[in-house]
Write a structure and sequence with these properties.
Oligomer: single chain
Helix content: 25-40%
Distance between the termini: 16 Å
Radius of gyration: 22 Å
Number of helices: 16
Number of strands: 19
Strand content: 15-25%
Bound molecules: flavin-adenine dinucleotide
Length: 466
Protein backbone atom coordinates (compact mmCIF):
# COMPACT_ATOMS: atom_id res chain seq x y z
CA UNK A 1 0.00 0.00 0.00
CA UNK A 2 2.70 2.46 1.06
CA UNK A 3 4.69 1.85 -2.14
CA UNK A 4 1.59 2.71 -4.19
CA UNK A 5 0.94 5.83 -2.13
CA UNK A 6 4.55 6.98 -2.57
CA UNK A 7 4.61 6.41 -6.34
CA UNK A 8 1.22 8.09 -6.83
CA UNK A 9 2.26 11.07 -4.71
CA UNK A 10 5.51 11.41 -6.66
CA UNK A 11 3.43 11.53 -9.85
CA UNK A 12 1.52 14.52 -8.48
CA UNK A 13 -1.78 12.68 -8.04
CA UNK A 14 -4.09 13.94 -5.28
CA UNK A 15 -3.76 11.33 -2.49
CA UNK A 16 -5.54 11.55 0.85
CA UNK A 17 -4.48 9.36 3.79
CA UNK A 18 -6.08 11.43 6.54
CA UNK A 19 -8.10 8.83 8.54
CA UNK A 20 -11.35 10.83 9.06
CA UNK A 21 -11.67 11.82 5.40
CA UNK A 22 -10.63 8.35 4.18
CA UNK A 23 -13.29 6.90 6.49
CA UNK A 24 -15.97 9.25 5.17
CA UNK A 25 -15.08 8.43 1.53
CA UNK A 26 -15.20 4.71 2.42
CA UNK A 27 -18.93 4.83 3.12
CA UNK A 28 -22.06 4.82 1.03
CA UNK A 29 -25.72 4.43 1.98
CA UNK A 30 -25.34 0.71 2.87
CA UNK A 31 -26.77 1.54 6.30
CA UNK A 32 -30.31 1.66 4.85
CA UNK A 33 -30.08 -2.08 5.42
CA UNK A 34 -29.69 -3.30 9.00
CA UNK A 35 -28.16 -6.47 7.54
CA UNK A 36 -25.47 -4.58 5.62
CA UNK A 37 -24.94 -2.19 8.52
CA UNK A 38 -24.03 -5.13 10.70
CA UNK A 39 -21.63 -6.55 8.10
CA UNK A 40 -20.02 -3.43 6.60
CA UNK A 41 -20.00 -0.63 9.16
CA UNK A 42 -16.28 -1.13 9.97
CA UNK A 43 -15.05 -1.30 6.39
CA UNK A 44 -12.45 1.34 5.50
CA UNK A 45 -9.97 2.00 2.66
CA UNK A 46 -6.30 2.84 3.16
CA UNK A 47 -6.25 5.93 0.98
CA UNK A 48 -8.26 8.01 -1.48
CA UNK A 49 -6.92 8.89 -4.92
CA UNK A 50 -8.72 11.71 -6.75
CA UNK A 51 -7.79 11.90 -10.45
CA UNK A 52 -8.42 15.02 -12.53
CA UNK A 53 -8.26 13.26 -15.90
CA UNK A 54 -8.42 9.91 -17.64
CA UNK A 55 -4.62 9.98 -17.87
CA UNK A 56 -4.46 10.11 -14.06
CA UNK A 57 -6.99 7.25 -13.81
CA UNK A 58 -4.67 5.20 -16.01
CA UNK A 59 -1.66 6.05 -13.79
CA UNK A 60 -3.57 5.10 -10.65
CA UNK A 61 -4.72 1.77 -12.10
CA UNK A 62 -1.26 0.93 -13.45
CA UNK A 63 0.41 1.63 -10.10
CA UNK A 64 -2.25 -0.13 -8.02
CA UNK A 65 -2.05 -3.11 -10.37
CA UNK A 66 1.72 -3.28 -9.96
CA UNK A 67 1.43 -3.14 -6.16
CA UNK A 68 -1.64 -5.46 -5.92
CA UNK A 69 -3.76 -2.74 -4.32
CA UNK A 70 -7.55 -3.22 -4.55
CA UNK A 71 -9.41 -0.28 -6.12
CA UNK A 72 -13.00 0.63 -5.35
CA UNK A 73 -14.47 3.44 -7.43
CA UNK A 74 -16.60 6.16 -5.91
CA UNK A 75 -18.87 8.70 -7.51
CA UNK A 76 -20.77 10.33 -4.65
CA UNK A 77 -21.30 7.23 -2.49
CA UNK A 78 -25.12 7.28 -2.44
CA UNK A 79 -25.62 3.63 -3.44
CA UNK A 80 -27.70 1.52 -1.05
CA UNK A 81 -26.34 -1.95 -1.75
CA UNK A 82 -22.88 -1.16 -0.34
CA UNK A 83 -21.70 -0.99 -3.96
CA UNK A 84 -18.96 1.54 -3.14
CA UNK A 85 -17.80 -0.04 0.14
CA UNK A 86 -14.10 -1.05 -0.08
CA UNK A 87 -14.44 -4.53 1.42
CA UNK A 88 -10.71 -5.27 1.19
CA UNK A 89 -9.45 -1.77 1.99
CA UNK A 90 -6.91 -0.39 -0.50
CA UNK A 91 -7.64 2.57 -2.75
CA UNK A 92 -10.82 4.57 -3.17
CA UNK A 93 -10.75 5.99 -6.67
CA UNK A 94 -12.84 9.12 -6.21
CA UNK A 95 -14.09 10.56 -9.50
CA UNK A 96 -15.62 13.73 -8.03
CA UNK A 97 -13.19 15.97 -9.92
CA UNK A 98 -13.85 14.53 -13.37
CA UNK A 99 -16.88 16.68 -14.12
CA UNK A 100 -16.39 18.04 -17.64
CA UNK A 101 -19.25 18.24 -20.12
CA UNK A 102 -17.51 17.62 -23.44
CA UNK A 103 -20.23 17.97 -26.05
CA UNK A 104 -23.96 18.53 -26.26
CA UNK A 105 -25.80 17.88 -29.52
CA UNK A 106 -29.45 17.28 -30.39
CA UNK A 107 -30.48 14.18 -28.46
CA UNK A 108 -27.18 13.41 -26.73
CA UNK A 109 -24.50 14.57 -24.32
CA UNK A 110 -20.89 13.47 -23.73
CA UNK A 111 -19.47 14.00 -20.25
CA UNK A 112 -17.05 12.75 -17.62
CA UNK A 113 -18.39 10.38 -14.94
CA UNK A 114 -18.03 12.56 -11.84
CA UNK A 115 -20.50 15.28 -12.76
CA UNK A 116 -23.61 15.43 -10.58
CA UNK A 117 -26.87 14.54 -12.31
CA UNK A 118 -28.29 17.97 -11.50
CA UNK A 119 -25.26 19.77 -12.96
CA UNK A 120 -25.44 17.67 -16.12
CA UNK A 121 -29.14 18.47 -16.49
CA UNK A 122 -28.43 22.18 -15.93
CA UNK A 123 -25.71 22.19 -18.61
CA UNK A 124 -27.96 20.44 -21.15
CA UNK A 125 -30.87 22.74 -20.40
CA UNK A 126 -28.74 25.89 -20.69
CA UNK A 127 -27.13 24.69 -23.93
CA UNK A 128 -30.19 23.61 -25.88
CA UNK A 129 -33.28 23.05 -23.71
CA UNK A 130 -32.53 19.34 -23.18
CA UNK A 131 -32.32 17.06 -20.13
CA UNK A 132 -31.47 13.47 -19.17
CA UNK A 133 -34.23 11.00 -19.96
CA UNK A 134 -34.07 9.65 -16.42
CA UNK A 135 -32.25 10.26 -13.17
CA UNK A 136 -31.93 8.74 -9.76
CA UNK A 137 -33.92 10.63 -7.13
CA UNK A 138 -30.48 11.50 -5.69
CA UNK A 139 -30.26 13.94 -8.64
CA UNK A 140 -28.87 16.67 -6.39
CA UNK A 141 -26.04 14.57 -4.92
CA UNK A 142 -25.23 11.57 -7.16
CA UNK A 143 -22.94 11.33 -10.19
CA UNK A 144 -23.82 10.11 -13.66
CA UNK A 145 -21.03 7.49 -13.48
CA UNK A 146 -22.34 6.11 -10.19
CA UNK A 147 -25.88 6.05 -11.57
CA UNK A 148 -24.78 3.96 -14.57
CA UNK A 149 -22.44 1.64 -12.64
CA UNK A 150 -24.60 1.25 -9.54
CA UNK A 151 -28.15 2.40 -10.24
CA UNK A 152 -31.09 1.10 -12.20
CA UNK A 153 -33.45 3.87 -13.23
CA UNK A 154 -35.67 6.40 -11.57
CA UNK A 155 -37.44 9.63 -12.35
CA UNK A 156 -38.25 9.38 -16.06
CA UNK A 157 -38.43 5.56 -16.10
CA UNK A 158 -42.23 5.83 -16.32
CA UNK A 159 -41.67 7.18 -19.84
CA UNK A 160 -38.30 5.73 -20.90
CA UNK A 161 -37.81 2.48 -18.95
CA UNK A 162 -34.65 1.69 -17.01
CA UNK A 163 -30.94 2.08 -17.67
CA UNK A 164 -30.89 -1.56 -18.80
CA UNK A 165 -33.37 -0.91 -21.59
CA UNK A 166 -31.80 -0.71 -25.04
CA UNK A 167 -30.93 2.83 -26.08
CA UNK A 168 -30.83 4.45 -22.64
CA UNK A 169 -27.00 4.53 -22.55
CA UNK A 170 -25.26 5.33 -25.85
CA UNK A 171 -21.56 4.82 -25.21
CA UNK A 172 -19.11 4.22 -22.39
CA UNK A 173 -15.36 4.74 -22.40
CA UNK A 174 -13.72 2.32 -20.00
CA UNK A 175 -10.22 1.90 -18.56
CA UNK A 176 -9.05 -1.62 -17.68
CA UNK A 177 -7.07 -2.76 -14.63
CA UNK A 178 -3.97 -4.31 -16.17
CA UNK A 179 -0.18 -3.89 -16.13
CA UNK A 180 -0.73 -1.43 -18.96
CA UNK A 181 -4.37 -0.28 -18.72
CA UNK A 182 -6.27 -0.14 -21.98
CA UNK A 183 -8.96 2.34 -22.95
CA UNK A 184 -12.00 0.83 -24.64
CA UNK A 185 -14.99 2.41 -26.34
CA UNK A 186 -18.09 0.36 -25.66
CA UNK A 187 -21.40 0.69 -27.52
CA UNK A 188 -24.52 -1.31 -28.31
CA UNK A 189 -25.18 -4.54 -26.47
CA UNK A 190 -21.65 -4.57 -25.01
CA UNK A 191 -22.61 -1.63 -22.77
CA UNK A 192 -24.17 -4.12 -20.38
CA UNK A 193 -20.79 -5.69 -19.76
CA UNK A 194 -19.91 -2.66 -17.62
CA UNK A 195 -23.18 -0.88 -16.84
CA UNK A 196 -24.52 -1.89 -13.42
CA UNK A 197 -21.33 -3.88 -12.72
CA UNK A 198 -20.41 -1.83 -9.60
CA UNK A 199 -17.03 -0.92 -11.14
CA UNK A 200 -15.89 -4.57 -10.82
CA UNK A 201 -14.65 -4.83 -14.39
CA UNK A 202 -13.53 -1.41 -15.59
CA UNK A 203 -13.57 2.28 -14.78
CA UNK A 204 -15.91 4.44 -16.81
CA UNK A 205 -14.13 7.66 -17.79
CA UNK A 206 -16.49 9.05 -20.42
CA UNK A 207 -20.20 8.66 -20.97
CA UNK A 208 -22.55 9.42 -23.84
CA UNK A 209 -26.21 9.62 -22.82
CA UNK A 210 -29.38 10.23 -24.81
CA UNK A 211 -31.35 13.39 -24.03
CA UNK A 212 -35.00 14.43 -24.15
CA UNK A 213 -36.55 17.91 -24.35
CA UNK A 214 -36.39 19.67 -20.97
CA UNK A 215 -39.56 20.84 -19.24
CA UNK A 216 -40.41 22.74 -16.09
CA UNK A 217 -42.17 19.65 -14.77
CA UNK A 218 -45.17 20.31 -12.52
CA UNK A 219 -45.07 18.40 -9.23
CA UNK A 220 -48.47 17.14 -8.05
CA UNK A 221 -49.84 15.22 -5.05
CA UNK A 222 -53.26 13.53 -5.03
CA UNK A 223 -54.96 11.62 -2.27
CA UNK A 224 -57.22 8.58 -2.59
CA UNK A 225 -59.26 6.76 0.04
CA UNK A 226 -58.90 3.56 -1.96
CA UNK A 227 -55.32 2.32 -2.51
CA UNK A 228 -56.36 0.15 -5.42
CA UNK A 229 -57.92 3.13 -7.18
CA UNK A 230 -54.66 5.03 -6.64
CA UNK A 231 -52.80 2.18 -8.34
CA UNK A 232 -55.30 1.95 -11.20
CA UNK A 233 -55.24 5.73 -11.72
CA UNK A 234 -51.42 5.78 -11.88
CA UNK A 235 -51.25 2.76 -14.16
CA UNK A 236 -53.81 4.23 -16.58
CA UNK A 237 -52.06 7.60 -16.54
CA UNK A 238 -48.74 5.97 -17.45
CA UNK A 239 -50.49 4.05 -20.23
CA UNK A 240 -52.07 7.21 -21.63
CA UNK A 241 -49.75 7.83 -24.59
CA UNK A 242 -50.73 11.45 -25.17
CA UNK A 243 -49.95 12.69 -21.66
CA UNK A 244 -46.30 13.33 -20.89
CA UNK A 245 -45.32 12.51 -17.30
CA UNK A 246 -41.95 11.92 -15.65
CA UNK A 247 -43.01 10.35 -12.35
CA UNK A 248 -45.94 8.33 -10.98
CA UNK A 249 -45.49 7.05 -7.44
CA UNK A 250 -48.07 5.53 -5.11
CA UNK A 251 -47.85 5.39 -1.31
CA UNK A 252 -50.09 3.17 0.79
CA UNK A 253 -51.67 4.82 3.86
CA UNK A 254 -50.33 5.95 6.27
CA UNK A 255 -46.91 6.55 4.62
CA UNK A 256 -47.69 10.17 3.70
CA UNK A 257 -49.30 10.96 7.05
CA UNK A 258 -46.56 9.37 9.12
CA UNK A 259 -43.39 10.12 7.16
CA UNK A 260 -43.92 13.14 4.86
CA UNK A 261 -43.81 16.10 7.27
CA UNK A 262 -44.88 18.76 4.77
CA UNK A 263 -47.59 16.66 3.16
CA UNK A 264 -48.96 15.25 6.44
CA UNK A 265 -51.11 18.29 7.40
CA UNK A 266 -53.01 17.89 4.11
CA UNK A 267 -53.85 14.18 4.29
CA UNK A 268 -55.66 11.81 6.64
CA UNK A 269 -54.26 8.66 8.26
CA UNK A 270 -56.19 6.48 5.78
CA UNK A 271 -55.20 8.38 2.63
CA UNK A 272 -53.16 6.72 -0.07
CA UNK A 273 -51.15 9.35 -1.94
CA UNK A 274 -49.97 9.61 -5.54
CA UNK A 275 -47.02 11.82 -6.54
CA UNK A 276 -46.67 12.93 -10.16
CA UNK A 277 -44.50 15.07 -12.42
CA UNK A 278 -46.47 16.31 -15.43
CA UNK A 279 -45.16 18.35 -18.38
CA UNK A 280 -46.65 21.88 -18.36
CA UNK A 281 -48.30 21.46 -21.77
CA UNK A 282 -49.93 18.22 -20.57
CA UNK A 283 -51.70 19.87 -17.62
CA UNK A 284 -55.10 20.49 -19.30
CA UNK A 285 -55.12 16.90 -20.55
CA UNK A 286 -54.12 15.67 -17.12
CA UNK A 287 -57.04 17.57 -15.57
CA UNK A 288 -59.47 15.95 -18.03
CA UNK A 289 -57.94 12.53 -17.35
CA UNK A 290 -58.12 12.98 -13.57
CA UNK A 291 -61.75 14.17 -13.61
CA UNK A 292 -62.77 10.64 -14.63
CA UNK A 293 -61.55 9.19 -11.29
CA UNK A 294 -64.15 9.96 -8.65
CA UNK A 295 -61.81 9.11 -5.76
CA UNK A 296 -58.89 11.30 -6.91
CA UNK A 297 -58.47 14.44 -4.84
CA UNK A 298 -55.76 16.84 -6.02
CA UNK A 299 -54.13 18.28 -2.92
CA UNK A 300 -51.05 20.00 -4.34
CA UNK A 301 -50.07 21.42 -7.72
CA UNK A 302 -46.67 23.07 -7.82
CA UNK A 303 -46.95 26.78 -8.56
CA UNK A 304 -50.70 26.83 -7.79
CA UNK A 305 -51.19 25.42 -4.29
CA UNK A 306 -50.13 27.69 -1.48
CA UNK A 307 -49.12 25.34 1.33
CA UNK A 308 -47.53 27.26 4.23
CA UNK A 309 -44.52 24.94 3.93
CA UNK A 310 -43.73 24.03 0.34
CA UNK A 311 -42.89 20.35 -0.17
CA UNK A 312 -39.83 20.85 -2.42
CA UNK A 313 -39.16 18.54 -5.37
CA UNK A 314 -41.94 15.96 -5.59
CA UNK A 315 -39.46 13.33 -6.85
CA UNK A 316 -37.63 13.61 -3.54
CA UNK A 317 -40.60 11.72 -2.00
CA UNK A 318 -40.33 8.85 -4.47
CA UNK A 319 -37.80 6.18 -5.37
CA UNK A 320 -35.45 5.59 -2.48
CA UNK A 321 -36.23 8.97 -0.92
CA UNK A 322 -39.39 7.40 0.47
CA UNK A 323 -37.24 5.05 2.56
CA UNK A 324 -35.01 7.94 3.66
CA UNK A 325 -38.01 9.97 4.87
CA UNK A 326 -39.44 6.96 6.71
CA UNK A 327 -36.07 6.13 8.29
CA UNK A 328 -35.74 9.66 9.63
CA UNK A 329 -39.00 9.24 11.55
CA UNK A 330 -38.68 5.56 12.43
CA UNK A 331 -35.12 4.12 12.41
CA UNK A 332 -36.51 0.57 12.46
CA UNK A 333 -37.80 0.94 8.89
CA UNK A 334 -35.97 -0.73 6.06
CA UNK A 335 -37.04 -1.66 2.53
CA UNK A 336 -37.23 -4.16 -0.31
CA UNK A 337 -36.90 -3.77 -4.06
CA UNK A 338 -39.63 -5.75 -5.76
CA UNK A 339 -40.62 -6.16 -9.40
CA UNK A 340 -44.35 -6.73 -9.84
CA UNK A 341 -44.00 -7.04 -13.61
CA UNK A 342 -46.36 -6.04 -16.37
CA UNK A 343 -48.93 -8.85 -16.46
CA UNK A 344 -51.27 -7.83 -13.67
CA UNK A 345 -49.18 -5.84 -11.20
CA UNK A 346 -52.20 -4.31 -9.46
CA UNK A 347 -53.61 -7.72 -8.54
CA UNK A 348 -50.20 -8.91 -7.34
CA UNK A 349 -49.63 -5.81 -5.21
CA UNK A 350 -53.12 -6.33 -3.75
CA UNK A 351 -52.22 -9.90 -2.82
CA UNK A 352 -48.97 -8.86 -1.14
CA UNK A 353 -50.68 -6.02 0.72
CA UNK A 354 -53.45 -8.31 1.89
CA UNK A 355 -50.91 -10.73 3.36
CA UNK A 356 -48.33 -8.37 4.81
CA UNK A 357 -49.71 -4.89 5.54
CA UNK A 358 -49.03 -3.05 7.85
CA UNK A 359 -45.70 -4.76 8.65
CA UNK A 360 -44.90 -4.12 5.00
CA UNK A 361 -46.22 -0.92 3.41
CA UNK A 362 -46.50 -0.49 -0.34
CA UNK A 363 -44.51 2.24 -2.04
CA UNK A 364 -44.89 1.60 -5.76
CA UNK A 365 -43.11 3.19 -8.73
CA UNK A 366 -44.77 3.01 -12.11
CA UNK A 367 -42.25 2.28 -14.87
CA UNK A 368 -42.35 1.16 -18.46
CA UNK A 369 -40.51 -1.67 -20.15
CA UNK A 370 -40.80 -3.13 -23.61
CA UNK A 371 -43.67 -0.77 -24.38
CA UNK A 372 -45.69 -1.99 -21.39
CA UNK A 373 -46.51 -0.34 -18.09
CA UNK A 374 -44.86 -2.13 -15.17
CA UNK A 375 -44.79 -1.59 -11.44
CA UNK A 376 -41.93 -1.86 -8.96
CA UNK A 377 -41.99 -1.67 -5.20
CA UNK A 378 -39.50 0.07 -2.97
CA UNK A 379 -41.53 -1.44 -0.21
CA UNK A 380 -41.18 -0.21 3.36
CA UNK A 381 -40.61 -2.91 5.95
CA UNK A 382 -40.78 -2.66 9.71
CA UNK A 383 -37.56 -4.53 10.56
CA UNK A 384 -37.61 -6.96 13.45
CA UNK A 385 -34.97 -9.58 12.61
CA UNK A 386 -32.95 -10.90 9.68
CA UNK A 387 -34.91 -14.16 9.83
CA UNK A 388 -38.22 -12.33 9.53
CA UNK A 389 -36.87 -10.20 6.67
CA UNK A 390 -35.88 -13.37 4.80
CA UNK A 391 -39.34 -14.82 5.46
CA UNK A 392 -40.99 -11.69 4.06
CA UNK A 393 -38.79 -11.90 0.95
CA UNK A 394 -39.65 -15.58 0.52
CA UNK A 395 -43.37 -14.76 0.76
CA UNK A 396 -42.99 -12.21 -2.03
CA UNK A 397 -41.25 -14.75 -4.26
CA UNK A 398 -43.93 -17.35 -3.44
CA UNK A 399 -46.62 -14.93 -4.58
CA UNK A 400 -44.75 -14.26 -7.84
CA UNK A 401 -43.21 -10.87 -6.95
CA UNK A 402 -39.52 -10.77 -7.85
CA UNK A 403 -37.04 -9.61 -5.24
CA UNK A 404 -33.81 -7.68 -5.89
CA UNK A 405 -32.37 -8.06 -2.42
CA UNK A 406 -31.02 -4.72 -1.14
CA UNK A 407 -29.66 -6.45 1.96
CA UNK A 408 -26.78 -8.04 0.07
CA UNK A 409 -23.56 -6.49 -1.23
CA UNK A 410 -22.90 -8.76 -4.22
CA UNK A 411 -24.10 -8.13 -7.76
CA UNK A 412 -25.69 -11.56 -7.94
CA UNK A 413 -27.68 -11.39 -4.69
CA UNK A 414 -28.85 -7.86 -5.48
CA UNK A 415 -29.98 -9.19 -8.85
CA UNK A 416 -31.45 -12.54 -9.84
CA UNK A 417 -28.78 -14.70 -8.15
CA UNK A 418 -26.79 -15.04 -11.30
CA UNK A 419 -24.22 -12.73 -12.78
CA UNK A 420 -24.51 -11.66 -16.35
CA UNK A 421 -22.00 -13.97 -18.09
CA UNK A 422 -20.86 -11.02 -20.16
CA UNK A 423 -19.89 -9.12 -17.02
CA UNK A 424 -17.87 -12.06 -15.74
CA UNK A 425 -16.20 -12.57 -19.13
CA UNK A 426 -15.33 -8.89 -19.29
CA UNK A 427 -13.85 -9.01 -15.79
CA UNK A 428 -11.58 -11.86 -16.87
CA UNK A 429 -10.41 -9.67 -19.73
CA UNK A 430 -10.25 -6.29 -18.00
CA UNK A 431 -9.29 -7.13 -14.41
CA UNK A 432 -7.35 -10.41 -14.49
CA UNK A 433 -5.98 -9.96 -10.96
CA UNK A 434 -9.47 -9.33 -9.54
CA UNK A 435 -8.47 -6.02 -7.95
CA UNK A 436 -11.52 -3.95 -8.92
CA UNK A 437 -14.10 -3.66 -6.12
CA UNK A 438 -13.25 -7.12 -4.75
CA UNK A 439 -15.93 -9.20 -3.07
CA UNK A 440 -18.84 -7.86 -5.12
CA UNK A 441 -19.01 -10.59 -7.80
CA UNK A 442 -19.60 -14.04 -6.27
CA UNK A 443 -19.13 -15.84 -9.57
CA UNK A 444 -15.57 -14.49 -9.74
CA UNK A 445 -14.68 -15.91 -6.32
CA UNK A 446 -16.92 -18.94 -5.99
CA UNK A 447 -18.62 -20.03 -9.22
CA UNK A 448 -20.38 -22.91 -7.43
CA UNK A 449 -22.00 -20.80 -4.73
CA UNK A 450 -25.49 -22.18 -3.99
CA UNK A 451 -27.30 -19.01 -2.78
CA UNK A 452 -28.82 -20.95 0.14
CA UNK A 453 -27.61 -18.29 2.55
CA UNK A 454 -26.06 -14.82 2.49
CA UNK A 455 -22.66 -14.83 0.80
CA UNK A 456 -19.87 -13.76 3.15
CA UNK A 457 -16.82 -12.84 1.09
CA UNK A 458 -13.76 -14.44 2.78
CA UNK A 459 -11.61 -11.38 2.00
CA UNK A 460 -13.89 -8.94 3.89
CA UNK A 461 -11.72 -7.06 6.37
CA UNK A 462 -12.34 -8.33 9.90
CA UNK A 463 -14.26 -6.06 12.26
CA UNK A 464 -11.28 -5.60 14.56
CA UNK A 465 -9.28 -4.03 11.71
CA UNK A 466 -11.16 -0.73 11.88
P1 LIG B 1 -21.66 5.56 -5.96
O1 LIG B 1 -22.52 5.13 -4.81
O2 LIG B 1 -20.45 6.34 -5.65
O3 LIG B 1 -21.26 4.31 -6.83
C1 LIG B 1 -22.18 3.34 -7.21
C2 LIG B 1 -21.42 2.14 -7.80
O4 LIG B 1 -20.86 2.51 -9.03
C3 LIG B 1 -20.26 1.66 -6.96
O5 LIG B 1 -20.14 0.27 -7.09
C4 LIG B 1 -19.04 2.32 -7.57
O6 LIG B 1 -17.88 1.55 -7.36
C5 LIG B 1 -19.43 2.34 -9.02
N1 LIG B 1 -18.91 3.46 -9.79
C6 LIG B 1 -19.09 4.79 -9.56
N2 LIG B 1 -18.53 5.50 -10.54
C7 LIG B 1 -17.98 4.62 -11.42
C8 LIG B 1 -17.25 4.76 -12.62
N3 LIG B 1 -17.00 5.95 -13.16
N4 LIG B 1 -16.79 3.64 -13.22
C9 LIG B 1 -17.04 2.42 -12.71
N5 LIG B 1 -17.73 2.24 -11.57
C10 LIG B 1 -18.20 3.33 -10.92
N6 LIG B 1 -30.78 4.54 -7.46
C11 LIG B 1 -31.49 4.49 -8.61
O7 LIG B 1 -31.08 3.80 -9.54
N7 LIG B 1 -32.66 5.19 -8.72
C12 LIG B 1 -33.13 5.98 -7.74
O8 LIG B 1 -34.13 6.67 -7.93
C13 LIG B 1 -32.41 6.03 -6.51
N8 LIG B 1 -32.85 6.80 -5.47
C14 LIG B 1 -32.08 6.88 -4.33
C15 LIG B 1 -32.52 7.71 -3.26
C16 LIG B 1 -31.77 7.79 -2.09
C17 LIG B 1 -32.24 8.69 -0.98
C18 LIG B 1 -30.55 7.06 -1.98
C19 LIG B 1 -29.70 7.17 -0.75
C20 LIG B 1 -30.12 6.26 -3.03
C21 LIG B 1 -30.87 6.17 -4.21
N9 LIG B 1 -30.44 5.38 -5.29
C22 LIG B 1 -31.20 5.30 -6.43
C23 LIG B 1 -29.13 4.74 -5.26
C24 LIG B 1 -28.01 5.72 -5.73
O9 LIG B 1 -28.23 7.01 -5.22
C25 LIG B 1 -27.96 5.89 -7.22
O10 LIG B 1 -27.78 4.68 -7.86
C26 LIG B 1 -26.86 6.88 -7.62
O11 LIG B 1 -27.08 7.29 -8.92
C27 LIG B 1 -25.46 6.40 -7.42
O12 LIG B 1 -24.56 7.44 -7.77
P2 LIG B 1 -23.26 7.75 -6.91
O13 LIG B 1 -22.49 8.79 -7.63
O14 LIG B 1 -23.61 8.07 -5.51
O15 LIG B 1 -22.54 6.35 -7.03
Amino acid sequence: IQAAIDTLTAKGIDIDTNPPSVKSKSRDFFWYSPVLKDRLDHVVADFVATPKSEAEVIDILRICHAEDVPVTTRGAGTGNYGQAMPLAGGCILHLGKMTAVKDIAPGRVICEPGILLKDLDAACKADSGQELRMFSSTWATATIGGFIAGGSGGVGSVRWGGLRDVGNILRLRVVTMEAEPRVMEITGDDIHRVAHAYGTNGIITEIEMPLAPAYDWVGIFLSFKDFEEALRYSYDLAACDGLLIKLATIFEAPIAKDYFQRVAPHVAEDDAVVALMVAPHAMPGWETFTAAYSGAKTIYVQGQTDWPRQPGHVFEYGWNHTTLRALKVDPSITYLQIAYGADDPIALIGKVKERLSPEVLQHVEVTRSGGRVTMSGLTLVKFTSEERLDEIIAMHEEMGAINFNPHRYTLEEGGRQTVDDRQLAFKREADPKGLLNPGKMITWDDPDWSYDSMYAWPGLQPKTAA
